[in-house]
Amino acid sequence: MTEIPVWAAILVGLFALIGSLLTFIGCMGLARFDSFYQRIHAPTLGTSFGAIFVLAASIIYFSVSGQRLAVHEVLIVIFVSLTTPVTLMLLARAALYRDRAEGNGNVPAAALGKDTVVKAADDL
Amino acid sequence: MMRQILPYPLLSLGMLILWLLLQQSLGLGQILLGSVVALFAGRALAALQPEQPRIRRPFKIIHLMGLVAVDVLWSNLAVARIVLQGRHRKQTAGFLLLPLELRDRSALAILACIITATPGSAWLEYDAVRGTVLIHVLDLVDDQEWIDTIKHRYERLLLEIFQ
Amino acid sequence: MTPSFLLTFALLLPFGAALVAALLPQNARNAEAWLAGTVAVAGLGIMIYLFPHVAAGGVVRHEIQWIPALGLNLILRIDGFSWLFGMLITGVGFLVVLYARYYMSPKDPVPRFFAFFLAFMGSMLGLVLSGNIIQLVIFWELTSLTSFLLIGYWFHFAQARDGARMALTVTGLGGLGLLIGMLIIGQIVGSYDLDVVLASGDLIRAHPLYLPALLLVLLGALTKSAQFPFHFWLPHAMAAPTPVSAYLHSATMVKAGVFLLVRFWPVMAGTDAWFWIVTSAGMATLIFGAYAAIFQTDLKGLLAYSTISHLGLITTLLGMSTPLATVAAIFHIANHATFKASLFMAAGIIDHETGTRDIRKLSGLFRFMPFTATLAMVASAAMAGVPLLNGFLSKEMFFAEVAERDANPFVNLALPIGATLASMFAVVYSLRFVHGVFFGPKPEGLSKLPHEPPALMRRPIEILVLLCLVVGIIPGVTIAPYLAAAVVSVTGPDTPYYSLSVWHGWNLALAMSGIALVGGVLLYWALYGYLAKGVDGPPLIHQLKGQRIFERIMLIITSKWARRLEARFGTRRLQPQLFLLFVLAVGLPASLLLTRLGGINLTFAGFDPAFALLWAVGIVCAVAAAQQAKFHRLVALVLLGGTGIVTCITFVWFSAPDLAITQLLVEIVTTVLILLGLRWLPKRVEDMRDEAQLLKARLRRYRDLVLAGLAGVGMTVIAYAVMTRQIPSGISKYFLENAYQLGGGTNVVNVMLVDFRAFDTLGEIAVLGIVALTVFSALRRFRPARESIAKPEQQRIQNEFDDRAPERSQGDTVNEYLLIPSVIMTWMFPVIIVLAVHLFLRGHDQPGGGFAAGIVMSIGFILQYMAGGTRWVEDRLRILPVRWIGSGLLLALLVGVAAQVVGYPFMTTAFQYVEIPYIGRVPLASALIFDLGVFSLVVGATVLILIALAHQSVRSPKAARNAVPIKEAEVSSDAPVEIR
Amino acid sequence: MELVLAIGIGVLTSCGVFLMLRPRTFQVIIGLSLLSYAVNLFIFSMGRLMVGAAPVTASGTIDPTHFTDPVPQALVLTAIVIGFAMTALFLVVMLAARGVTGTDHVDGREQR
Amino acid sequence: MSETILFWTIMVSQFLLAGSMIAATSRMIRGPRAQDRILALDAFYVAAMLMLVLFGIRVGTSVYFEAALVIGVLGFVSTVALAKFLMRGEVIE
Amino acid sequence: MNTLLDHLVVLPILLPLAAGALMLMFDDRQRVTKAFINVFATALHLVICVMLVVQAANPTDLLAASYPIGNWPVPFGIVLVADRLSAMMVLLASVLGISALVYSLARWHAAGPNFHTLFQFLLMGLNGAFLTGDIFNLFVFFEVMLAASYGLALHGLGLARIKAGLHYVAVNLGASFLFLIGAALIYGVTGTLNMADLASKVATIPELDRGLLEAGAAFLGLAFLLKAGMWPLGFWLPTTYAAASAPVAAVFAIMTKVGVYAVLRLSTLAFGIEAGASAGLGQTVLQIGGMATIAFGAVGVLASQTTARLAGYCVLVSSGTLLAAIGMGNAFVTGGALYYLVISTLAISAFFLIVELLERIRIAGADVLAITLEAYGDDEEDIENDEIGLAIPGALTMLGICFALCVLLLAGLPPLAGFLGKFAIISALFNPHGLTEAAIITPASWWLASLMIFSGFAALVALTRTGISTFWATMSDTPAPVRVIEIAPILLLLGLTVVMTVLAGPVMDYMYVMAENLHSPAIEIGNILATPLVGEVLP
Ligand code: NA
Ligand code: NA
């Protein structure tokens, strides 16, 4: 490990801690929330500022230790914020379909009528 | 001719930037190589014939990004608080049906990303016929506030950018 | 014309002629007979020519190099005894050929007959002329095989098939025993050379392995000579055409057994074991055969049992171990051959002329065929031991030998009585043969009117009967010198005096002869009534059907037991097989390690709680996946992903970035892959088993758990032990030190993959390509389970929903579902391409490389398939995965071959730093081209595998509709993209 | 660290072996995957564990003791690829068997 | 000094991320529905990615960056496939 | 290295790879082109292998011609070694290859896509496994061979093949894991992957690590023994081989020999007399396992209801005999075993080809498609009707003769080479120091000799049963639809056994020198480790 100035170390450590903590809280939410639609919000902590802080820590560390700007971490931020929504959207819509199909009353009905009842894919 | 070589100039530029970031270098060689790769990547995308987004005001994008960044940061803190409150908290989560004027698929995609990437709100289902979207909100105290935020802060900007 | 050349010629001639005979046309009866007859006569001539060389104990020997390293050279060796056999084989052979010319019907395929016959003759000659005991076994088995073919000649009769098989089984088994016996003798003596063996009698008899060797040799001899209790195959061999019987069961095949006994008499006889086994087997056979012969209703059956009995006589004589008994045995071998051959031929003529061999149907034939009858009567008399015929002489010698006083009182009494009794029986069956067939009233119900056969067909019998007479009357002039030569070669120069004269004065032997003759006549008279009733088979031992017992035993052992053993010690189920594999995989290493593992020092240096926590997660995921895999496939798959990520982090933790990247990418592709497959796995069926079965299943599960636990403990111990031991000074330093200098890259792992050990990589990509092709082939005619043919439930419901709603059309749901995500997924396509190029180009110096890039690229394609569906993508992109595979392999290969072209070994790489304007120093390594090949192959193979699976969804409705396999053409017309 | 990894390898092996002995083809394929993780980690561990010593050298002469052993890594890479190929193959054979036999039992028929 | 700061903060951070993974795993196992498990896997991926980034800082090298990047760019593919399987019963139509 | 001869060692791997890859560039509908390429490549391959054997037999040369792939020094790079044994195995593979290929052209090559490519890759895998001198590279080539064999075993599909294929794949995947574990463990203890280097290190390994090294060898051994079909690891074999299409099964005849080869190679090289405390490792396992395999194989031969399965069990008998013989650890026995190996492989291969024709006789007149339909359930076989070659007259006689020869060879009856092989082994068992030296016959030798005789007898009984019911009990008037290109390969294989019978002397000498070299490997180890490189590494 290359020696870096203390200010930088503090900054890196702090950012890393905040980022990890946010991610941790997000995952806590994932574990603690009662319904799927609530849980779906939890991981976004990690994918948004959880990731941003950790990656910022990385940028600072490598920029300071390598004496040149290391910003490729930005890519991760960009792509994570671009791709995570895709997963969540697809997943949420699938959950919606399944809940409707099974007649779980807690979800708004589809625009037109109700889907027929089907067995869940959990049984696969 | 130009369209054939460079079907998506903005995208290709983005790919060049991506390349340079990946190489962590601004050397001329890398720029040349990156341009070749970016051109190729653009052609590859062109083969898939996606809908062409028409971006009228690209610089508004930066505005939008700043807006989103701030919102996301606050949302992070809000959701973190909710998580930490645990079960003592009153259940406030709920669904929200949102009518949209936006029709451009790319614009809708960006809006979906913004809403979903923001902790506390999630894009669930888009009804293309009616132009409505179902959103789930973790802390749904006031429906209208959410509708306003989304419509005024994001949709308006996106409409400006794309249409 | 040296004797050794003639010997070789005599042996090769029949085999060569057999080949020629096989190639002659179907109806060439005369040509075949001429050929075979000429061969036999030539052989006979050679034998006669050679007599002076063997007359006074001389031996002619010719050695041909074959396998000197094994002590197995071809040695042709003839002495007086084998000369005698040579004469019998060729002489009787000639007569049988002559006979067969008339016997065989024009409808019979004669080429096969004469080819087998000649081959048999050659084998028999080879047997008696063998000067190497292994060679002897070779010809021994050849006689079994060729006789099998001869006995089964009329294979459309079930009897012929069964008889042939039984003969082969019994004699073949004996032959295998003989082989081991000979090997033991060879081991004792230190050579397989017969002359060496014959000179080592004392060594052999004194050796601890004498008894096993003896037993095995006797097994061979007794089975071949149809001695009790192996006698049963012989009567059933009578299903053969009569010439075959006449040849095999008089002069040759069955005589091979006694030939062997005589051949090894000098080295193995004389011990108690020999005496008891051989004599008792012989005596039992003698009496039993004679007794059984009386009650046969089939002429050939009678002769067969008579043959068994006479062989028993010879065996008994040999068992007695005295030189004089051996003389008698040799003499009887020759005598029996003459009269028995003639009798078989006579029986054949009777069969030929009347259409039956059944004594009960035959009678009074004398008036139709007086010549033949007379000949048969003389031969029968010889068989019965009537004076002035050759049979009498050797039988007298036999009686004289058994009458010798022995120390053992039982032997003293049993031998003479047994011999006389058997002789009496012989008189009875001979009488029955003569009286029953030739005398009495005219036969009734015959299919044709009997008459004398063609003169030439009778000629062989005439010659043989003449021999019986002249030998019987003037033995001293006719047989004596030849017998003497034979005897000397067996019993040695010190053979005691023996007399061949007809009259030896009044002695015990003569008395026994007298008793036998008179008693025989009386007994026949007494039995006449019973015999007239025509009951087939001997009374008292009627139930003892050797054949049936044999078939039964064979069925039980070779079929019932075999199947039971196969089921007991084998399995066709997968689980036990894997269980055994893992048992051994745990047990064998454990047996080597348990006591010798050495110290295990527990160390907690560098312990990291985060890492431990990480592995807690990994372990929980793995266990949960294992637990869920049965009923919750999707859950298991998700949990598997968790374990995969932990593995990936572990790689990073311990300095393996390349592994982490590859693991991660493969993980993604595998998930998609299994999901693609999951669509074709219908829901699990309910468990229909009852309590007991469930309990059994549970016990099996516990058993498997224990084994799995042990396997885990074993792996833990071994891995831990190695990880905490000193690093051996191995090859790794070289790679680290030279990767840059010699391989032109700083990423040592990548340099290893594309350079130091590129050969492994070449094989590895070949595997991937092969598997892709296999998957494609297997899926081209894929037949989904019935329940999965229809679209998945979700799609049906969603389509139904779309159909019901007035303003929607089918597919709207999925389109809406993917509307937004597919935009982003499509836009990721160029990003992924850039990432792939990035990983590819940096591979040599930094983590990445062709493989990782290839997988990234294929994930890019798959993502598009997921976003837009098969048709959407294939309307836009033209992917030819098989070509990608082919070009990848060819590219990788070309890099290797290029080195060869410039004189270096395959896969020698070259690299150079090139100064490119504006860009700088760039390393150009041929290994990069190799890596490009890897990239191309990986893209092709991965895409082919995944797309071939994905295509099943497009195909299946059609498959369900037509229920025909999808042919190539359909696949390509189906899909604009050509998946090959 | 070694102990943690060794136990991890052991547990993965146990799960893999247990699943491979199960009657359902899907269990077997998950077992194959778990076992393949275990084996890959095992091969990897044969080079001993070093943190922060990736075998990516500088371009000059180097001290080999500062880098972890690259050989097992090369072997694992090959093993991963082959493992992936074999998973794909087994999957397809499993599907084909499911199709023609009508059951997902490894023996092609339900055991009684 | 800075080394100590970094050592402890990174260590704690990694510990937190491992804790995140545990939380995600618990959801993966508890479910109750397939969508919950897939969601948890997605969160698991993100925590793993951040873990790799922190590891890069910890050992002071960016050779592990690409591994994190691969998760960032491609990690969503397997969860997308899972989600689509849930919705449509097959991954590629 | 400027002539083709210098690269002879690597050509048996390159040629099939090149041919296989080249064929991928053609459409699957261009089957004739592919067949042409395949035949040409396989024939060329045969020539190369003959040259390799000649080169290896040349006593003035080094014992082993080693070839440093990539011009990297041994033991760091991968080295190929062509000594007498590997050259012989490669030749054997190519003989089997050409005959199976010609046979397949009559109909089987059209039963599914990519037959020709997979066929070449199988050859590549086999040759690589025989030629490589590196443990991990051996694994890779095992996998190449197996991957191709999976594809070929499934070739033609149908219920029986798919069911058997599932087991075959699953069991062999298990074995592959063991192979990896073993190879890795050996590397972890010795730090090398090169077999010769390993052999030179075994004796000096620290005592503390010896258990681990031997455990590694045990893992490897299990993987090999499973391929060889040793009881109780070989239950998959008869089923798989019986289900496979005839030409495929005919080539598979040598796959078990790869396992035997690997066992022989590693046990003599690394655990021979020079292995110090580890000398003779695993011999007891080989002896007991081999004998159990013979016994089980013989029982299976008797119990088999179909001829194809019977043939599969013959493979087990052959494997068991070889393993037990190798387990004796005696050069004389090994020499005999090597002769037996060649003969039994040729015979079994020919037999697999005959089996299908026998089936055709049984239901002569009925179309072969109907047969396969019946045997493999409701599956349609899309074998196209483009049969090549002429149906021959007298086919039944020809088949009968071929079958009889096979019976002799498989039962080990005189006068053919099957007998000589067994005789050579048993004679060596009885006379471990040579025929003229007195010795005590060990119980193991007794057992093995008896089992060999017993198995021969079992084969005789079972095969006569089959032969009689096929050729004698069924009388069909319609001539069997057998083609020249189906009979010719059988005649080639059997003809070779006849040649080996007649020339048994020199052939046996070749084997004994081979066995001698195997059992005293010091020179060969030295030669491999001193493999010369070409100049300096390319600039
Ligand atoms: Na959100
Ligand atoms: Na509608």
From TrEMBL, chain A:
Which InterPro entries does this chain map to? PhaG_MnhG_YufB
Q: Which GO terms describe its molecular function?
A: sodium:proton antiporter activity
Q: Membrane-crossing residues?
A: 6-31, 43-64, 70-92
Q: Which UniProt keywords apply?
A: Membrane, Transmembrane, Transmembrane helix
Would you tell me the protein name for this molecule?
Monovalent cation/H+ antiporter subunit G
UniProtKB/TrEMBL annotation, chain C:
Organism name: Devosia psychrophila
Q: Where are the transmembrane segments?
A: 6-24, 31-51, 80-101, 113-131, 137-155, 167-189, 209-234, 246-267, 273-295, 371-393, 413-440, 461-485, 505-527, 578-598, 610-627, 634-654, 660-681, 702-723, 761-779, 817-841, 847-867, 888-907, 927-949
Q: Where in the cell is it found?
A: Cell membrane; Membrane
Classification via NCBIfam families: 2a6301s01, PRK12648.1
Q: What is this protein called?
A: Multicomponent K+:H+ antiporter subunit A
List the InterPro entries. Answer: CPA3_Na-H_Antiporter_A, MnhB, MrpA/MnhA1/PhaAB, MrpA_C/MbhD, MrpA_C/MbhE, ND/Mrp_TM, Proton_antipo_N
- Keyword Transferase listed? The answer is no
Domain MrpA C-terminal/MbhE spans what residues? 699-796
From TrEMBL, chain E:
Task: List localization entries.
Answer: Cell membrane
**The entry's keywords:** Antiport, Cell membrane, Ion transport, Membrane, Transmembrane, Transmembrane helix, Transport
GO CC: one term?
plasma membrane
Q: Which residue ranges does UniProt annotate as crossing the membrane? A: 6-26, 38-57, 63-87
Membrane topology reported for the UniProt record: Multi-pass membrane protein
Q: Which domain of life is it from?
A: Bacteria
Gene Ontology molecular-function annotations: sodium:proton antiporter activity
| Keyword Transmembrane belongs to the record | yes
The record's section on InterPro entries has: MrpF/PhaF-like
The entry sums up its family as follows:
Belongs to the CPA3 antiporters (TC 2.A.63) subunit F family.
Q: What is this protein called?
A: Monovalent cation/H+ antiporter subunit F
Automatic annotation (TrEMBL), chain F:
On whether Phosphoprotein is a keyword of this UniProt record, the answer is no
Q: Residues in domain NADH:quinone oxidoreductase/Mrp antiporter transmembrane?
A: 134-438
Q: What is its main location?
A: membrane
Cross-referenced InterPro entries: CPA3_Na-H_Antiporter_D, ND/Mrp_TM
Q: Where in the cell is it found?
A: Cell membrane; Membrane
A matching Pfam family: Proton_antipo_M
Membrane topology field = Multi-pass membrane protein
Transmembrane region positions?
A: 6-26, 35-56, 76-103, 138-157, 169-190, 210-229, 241-264, 284-303, 310-332, 338-358, 390-413, 444-463, 484-504
Q: Does the keyword Metal-binding apply?
A: no
Keywords (alphabetical) are: Cell membrane, Membrane, Transmembrane, Transmembrane helix
Q: Name one GO cellular component term.
A: plasma membrane
Family statement: Belongs to the CPA3 antiporters (TC 2.A.63) subunit D family.
- Which protein is depicted? Monovalent cation/H+ antiporter subunit D
